């Protein structure tokens, strides 16, 4: 628990497309080439019980980005959150998606996804 909120790494990704030298292990992506990456994620949630939904992108154990939105009510419980941005990653860094509130997400590859692509390699 961090700040009273449990964070679970999302592990049940369906790997449909993989290119380059990224390695996927138990819900994390390990970087092989140091450089600047565009990292992105979207989660489709389906839970009307909590007051908000959120997912976070982590680089190793550090939160890089978070998207949060309010849940209207039980009848309007479906929505998406997207985030993406540029970050420098070392060749041993791992990225992952974590969920601090509900864990009721629709894990369809067209609705919930995450990944990264190399914009500019550097020597580290």
TrEMBL record:
<dbReference type="InterPro" id="IPR006052">
    <property type="entry name" value="TNF_dom"/>
</dbReference>
<dbReference type="InterPro" id="IPR021184">
    <property type="entry name" value="TNF_CS"/>
</dbReference>
<dbReference type="Pfam" id="PF00229">
    <property type="entry name" value="TNF"/>
</dbReference>
<feature type="domain" description="THD">
    <location>
        <begin position="1"/>
        <end position="119"/>
    </location>
</feature>
<protein>
    <recommendedName>
        <fullName>THD domain-containing protein</fullName>
    </recommendedName>
</protein>
<dbReference type="InterPro" id="IPR008983">
    <property type="entry name" value="Tumour_necrosis_fac-like_dom"/>
</dbReference>
<comment type="similarity">
    <text>Belongs to the tumor necrosis factor family.</text>
</comment>
<keyword id="KW-0202">Cytokine</keyword>
<dbReference type="GO" id="GO:0005164">
    <property type="term" value="F:tumor necrosis factor receptor binding"/>
</dbReference>
<keyword id="KW-0472">Membrane</keyword>
<dbReference type="GO" id="GO:0016020">
    <property type="term" value="C:membrane"/>
</dbReference>
<dbReference type="GO" id="GO:0005125">
    <property type="term" value="F:cytokine activity"/>
</dbReference>
<dbReference type="GO" id="GO:0005615">
    <property type="term" value="C:extracellular space"/>
</dbReference>
<dbReference type="GO" id="GO:0006955">
    <property type="term" value="P:immune response"/>
</dbReference>
């Amino acid at each position: 628990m961090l700040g009273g909120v449990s964070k679970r790494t999302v592990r049940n990704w369906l790997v449909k497309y993989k290119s380059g030298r990224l390695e996927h292990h138990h819900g994390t992506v390990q970087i092989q080439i140091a450089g600047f990456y565009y990292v992105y994620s979207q989660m489709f949630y389906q839970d009307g019980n909590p007051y908000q939904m959120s997912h976070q992108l982590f680089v190793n154990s550090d939160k890089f980005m978070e998207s949060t939105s309010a849940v209207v009510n039980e009848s309007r419980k479906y929505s998406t959150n997207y985030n993406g941005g540029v970050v420098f990653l070392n060749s041993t860094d791992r990225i992952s998606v974590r969920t601090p509130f509900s864990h009721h997400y629709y894990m369809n590859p067209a609705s919930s996804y995450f990944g990264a692509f190399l914009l500019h390699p550097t020597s580290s």
